[in-house]
């Protein structure tokens, strides 16, 4: 097992295969800041690789065996195949190799308190909320987020060695390589069924994650979720629950939404009123995310008045109900939602925002997810007035011909007739420009590159 000390630099030069990824780049930046020599490769140049280059990393575009330098450690992502030429060469040269999850776990061990936010939905938003509360309460945390957060200037911020805040992804059991002192479970839902066998397999994996938390640590869990409740009986560490009623340690009452869909709500803790909170991001799901952040930060000793202030000043991360701009009097919004539960929550939040017609332009993400959850996807769009389904974004997968976006359109028509399929972004942009009316809200949705449709619409402005 590879280990290293951030201060001793026994391992000095670290090479990242896939360094341009949102998480890999953040880890690379943390190591650069701590004085390590960092290099790596990615298939495409980006603002992320450019930023790393400016900070001192050597970046190679494209994967080639000649790229691999004489280094002490190689890090790879789950997307890297076993025949990757750099990975093959590293094995031949007997260079120690670790996954992204392993290196992140090694980093977590070097901090006094490591906060790992897990759950099928809401990880990026909740991690960002916790990060902003701690950052602006003078806790100076080190932060790794799976999205861009303007308030820290990106997806990573290096602080002191006391607090480390990061997302904990369940895919391929990645978070089982972590060393959390505080773990949060937001929810547990069916997803990543290309890896997990069924919901029981998913619950068992989250249970294994929770059992990583030491007895001196803390688990914060959403009690309203029956799958999360299944985890609690198997955990040895102290548990804090949050949810919608007084059976939880933290709960909400008096939730009200303003004309923008932003919530005001009261929070109670162990039968005592804790405070009144306001959010500047929409949706009931974000009340739950905020409550997890409140429970975490309150347990760390952040004064409640600072939690209230900093939550109100949180305006969300990129691609989470991200208002891109206006095309005339038509509002263009983008969101990362790519699971039926997320789609429902996001559309429900959008429905509370004043609008004429609500458009949803959805790009399914991966063939396996679309096929496995086809019926769940089909009845997720009831809040939308107009639905456009784009081609499936393959991500790490290959098209076997078993599922197509047309199959989803056919299923959706059983619930909502106002749905069409379009096979390229140019057609979608032309159609929206022709059909959308003043005061309409156009929402692009998905974890792939569907955000480009919103950019294309705005680029055609005027």
Question: Care to describe what's here?
Answer:
It is a single chain. This protein is an alpha/beta fold and 462 residues long. The protein folds into three domains: 13-99, NAD(P)-binding Rossmann-like Domain (Rossmann fold, 3-Layer(aba) Sandwich), CATH 3.40.50.720; 109-312, UDP-N-acetylmuramoyl-L-alanine:D-glutamate ligase; 322-459, Mur ligase, C-terminal domain (Protein-Tyrosine Phosphatase, Chain A, Alpha-Beta Complex). The protein has helices at residues 22-33, 47-54, 85-92, 100-108, 123-135, 199-210, 226-232, 284-299, 304-312, 340-351, 367-372, 374-378, 405-412, 425-435, 451-459; strands at residues 13-17, 37-42, 58-61, 73-76, 97-99, 113-118, 142-149, 154-157, 163-168, 182-185, 218-222, 239-243, 250-257, 262-269, 272-282, 322-327, 330-335, 358-362, 386-389, 419-421, 441-445. It has a ten-stranded mixed beta sheet with strand order 8-7-9-6-10-11-12-13-14-15, with helices on both faces. A six-stranded mixed beta sheet has the order 16-17-21-18-19-20, sandwiched between helices. A five-stranded parallel beta sheet has the order 3-2-1-4-5, sandwiched between helices. α5 (123-135) packs across α9 (304-312). The longest helix has 16 residues, at 284-299. The protein starts with 12 loop residues before the first strand and ends with a helix.
Structural class: alpha/beta
Largest sheet: 10 strands, mixed
Strand content: 25-35%
CATH architecture of the largest domain: 3-Layer(aba) Sandwich
Number of domains: 3
**Cα-atom radius of gyration:** 22 Å
Q: What multimeric state do the chains show?
A: single chain
Mean pLDDT: 94
Tell me the span between the first and last alpha carbons. Answer: 58 Å
Total strands: the figure is: 21
CATH homologous superfamily of the largest domain, by name?
Answer: Mur-like, catalytic domain
Enumerate how many helices there are, as a single number. Answer: 15
The side-by-side strand order for the widest beta sheet comes to 8-7-9-6-10-11-12-13-14-15
The best one-word shape is globular
Helix content: 25-40%
């Amino acid at each position: 097992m590879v280990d290293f000390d951030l201060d001793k630099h026994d391992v000095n030069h670290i090479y990242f295969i896939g360094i341009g990824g949102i998480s890999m780049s953040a880890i690379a930046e943390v190591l650069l800041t701590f004085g390590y020599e960092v290099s790596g490769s990615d298939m495409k140049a980006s603002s992320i690789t450019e930023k790393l280059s400016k900070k001192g990393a050597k970046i190679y575009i494209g994967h080639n065996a000649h790229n691999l330098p004489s280094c002490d450690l190689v890090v790879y992502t789950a997307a890297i195949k076993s025949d990757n030429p750099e990975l093959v060469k590293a094995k031949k040269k007997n260079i120690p190799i670790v996954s992204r999850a392993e290196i992140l776990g090694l980093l977590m061990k070097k901090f006094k308190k490591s906060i790992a936010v897990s759950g099928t939905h809401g990880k990026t938003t909740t991690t960002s909320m916790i990060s902003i509360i701690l950052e602006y309460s003078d806790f100076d945390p080190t932060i790794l987020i799976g999205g861009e957060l303007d308030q820290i200037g990106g997806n990573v911020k290096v602080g002191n060695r006391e607090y480390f805040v990061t997302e904990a992804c369940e895919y391929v059991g990645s978070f089982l390589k972590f060393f959390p002192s505080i773990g949060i479970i937001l929810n547990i839902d069916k997803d990543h069924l290309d890896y997990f066998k069924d919901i029981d397999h998913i619950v068992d994996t989250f249970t294994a994650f929770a059992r990583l938390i030491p007895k001196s640590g803390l688990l914060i869990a959403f009690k309203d979720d029956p799958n999360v409740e299944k985890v609690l009986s198997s955990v040895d560490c102290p548990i804090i629950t949050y949810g919608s009623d007084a059976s939880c340690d933290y709960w909400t009452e008096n939730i009200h939404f303003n004309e923008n869909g932003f919530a005001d709500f009261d929070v109670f803790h162990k039968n005592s009123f804790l405070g009144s909170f306001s959010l500047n991001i929409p949706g009931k799901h974000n009340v739950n995310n905020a409550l997890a952040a409140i429970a975490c930060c309150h347990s760390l000793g952040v004064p409640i008045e600072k939690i209230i202030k900093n939550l109100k000043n949180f305006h969300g991360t990129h691609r989470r109900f991200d208002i891109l701009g206006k095309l005339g009097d038509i509002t263009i919004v983008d969101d990362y939602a790519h699971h039926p539960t997320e789609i429902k929550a996001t559309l429900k939040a959008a429905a509370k925002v004043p609008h004429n017609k609500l458009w949803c332009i959805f790009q399914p993400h991966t063939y396996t997810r679309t096929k496995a959850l086809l019926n769940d996807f089909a009845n997720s769009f009831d809040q939308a007035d107009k639905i456009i389904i784009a081609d499936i974004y393959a991500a790490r997968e290959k098209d076997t011909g078993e599922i197509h976006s047309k199959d989803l359109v056919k299923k959706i028509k059983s619930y909502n007739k106002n749905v069409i399929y379009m096979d390229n972004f140019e057609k979608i942009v032309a159609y929206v420009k022709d059909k959308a009316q003043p005061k309409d809200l156009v929402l692009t949705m998905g974890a792939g590159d569907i955000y480009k449709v919103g950019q294309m619409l705005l680029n055609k402005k005027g």
